[in-house]
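Hey L., structure's done. Input below.
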Amino acid sequence: MSILLFTAGCSAEPGIDATVLISNVRFDLQEVHIPVGGTVEWQFDDGGLLHEVHADGIFDSGVNGDSTFRFTFDTPGDVEYQCSIHPYMSGIVHVG
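Output:
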C-alpha cells in the first residue's frame, strides 16, 4: 500500500495547496496548513465506499465514492471537518 503525502505548497496539480486522500476509512492527511486563498483537494479513493466531507456552514462535498472535491478557503482560521457517514473520520484545515 502506498500513501500519498502532500504538504501545503507541494501538490501534484497547480492551484492545489494540499491534498487529502480518503482511503481505508480515514483522511490522510488529517491536518493540513494552507495560505488564505488556498485550495484543498479531497481524493475519494476507498474502493467505492461512500463518504461525505463537510464543515458545517462552510462546505459539503455531497456523498461521493470515487472522485475529488475541492474547496478554496478565503478566511483565515481553523476549519474542522468530518465525514457525515463515518463521523469518527475528522480532520482540520489551518488557513493562514
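The chain is about 0% helix and 45% strand. Residues 61 and 80 are 14 Å apart (CA to CA).

-- N.
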